[in-house]
Amino acid sequence: MTQLPPEQRAPREPTGLDWDTILTGDESRPRRDARAGGPSGRESQGGEDPFAQRDHPVAPRTNDPFASDDEVPLTRRERRELEERQSLLEAAPTTGPSEAQRPSRAERRSAAGIDDPGAPTKPKRRGAWGCLIALLVVVALGAGAFFFLQGPISAVIERFQPAADYEGTGSGEVTFMILDGDTGSSIAENLYEEGVVASSEAFYELLLQQEPEPEFHPGAYRLAEKMSAKAALEALEDPANKLENTFVIPEGTATADALSIIAEGAGVPLEQLQAAAAESPQSYGLPAEAQSLEGFLFPATYTVDPALDARGVLQTLVDRQFQALDDAGVAPADRWRTIVLASLIQREAGLRDDYYKVSRVFQNRLDPAQWESGLLQSDATVAYGTGNTHRVSTTDAERADAGNPYNTYVHPGLPVGPISNPGDLAIDAALHPADGTWLFFVTWNLDTGETIFSTTVEEHDAAVAKWLAWMDEHPEYQ
Fold it and tell me: How buried is residue 155: exposed, middle or buried, by Cβ count under 10 Å (0-12/13-18/19+)?
């Protein structure tokens, strides 16, 4: 395409919109429109010069899409450009006194509740009360976790810890009895109770590891205190440690059980011992009130002459009880009452100091001024009357049975006779009760023997509730 030389070209008006006219609306101002021609007014050789000055007026441009015939609507592009310019004019900042009062962007966003991510945040400061409350919450949560998890954690620790055990062969001397019918677990428990081993578990676990399984023979054995489980097992298997004609009667043992122990230790047939015990108690020197030898077979370790017969062996034990009463300062006329009360204390008390408190409870109840009914209400006496000498718990029906002469829930005063063979401690407690106003007691922890002593019914009811809760957690005692 050829073009005219520069000197022959007509000057062209810039194409586009006359924004000043459109925006101001002043139609009287000259318009600068390419279609209105340029100032030189030339034509091209091929026809009308597009840049020539026209002799007819050009229709005004309008933004109205429904413009009249006298107005030419803006094209789409022109309309868009117009809108953009109008937006720019509206957004242009103004100057003057009002500018200083205009809120900032951050202030506007804050008033609208919008956080400005670009603005620096101020660290929040906790007050002293907030820190204290947070600390108390942490302490409370820690204490609660310790309280609720203490039991499970202790159980887990105990499960994976080895059983307590001593080292070596021990010291001192202990005469240990194995009775007919004792099992490995009962032997382990008896060894622990008599201070031979550190724990029954250590001995029993060792016992289970033995092949073949050891055989234990009834009788008395010479052991020591604080022996390792291994040393105790070896000593029980060594025939040299078996004592001939020796036996041990534990404190609180009933006469029926004592006869079996004597038979196994002394080698005297049980039938002969039972026949000798059935003879008149007065023939052994017992008080006139006695109906049997119960209470007068002193609990101790005995080594008897092999030549003694059944009656001779029993007389040895009775004489030893008379000696204990004499040593305690009990007159012969007071032997019966002392032995009956001591046998009751022996069966009911657990810990050593409790012997004297239990004695005080029974003696307070025997005082009409403090306990009008005179009922001792001892479960141990009721159980003895049923023929059960190995427990002290009873049922409602047993406590209501008036046909049981030993039932101190029904019959006031001391029971009709002793319910066990008491030792020196129980005899001393019967003679020297502790000072106190207690009328009730309950052994709430059967594992440790802990006992609660009370003066009022309300205090006793609370203690019984504690015992029942403990029993619920230890179904093995039920």
Answer: exposed
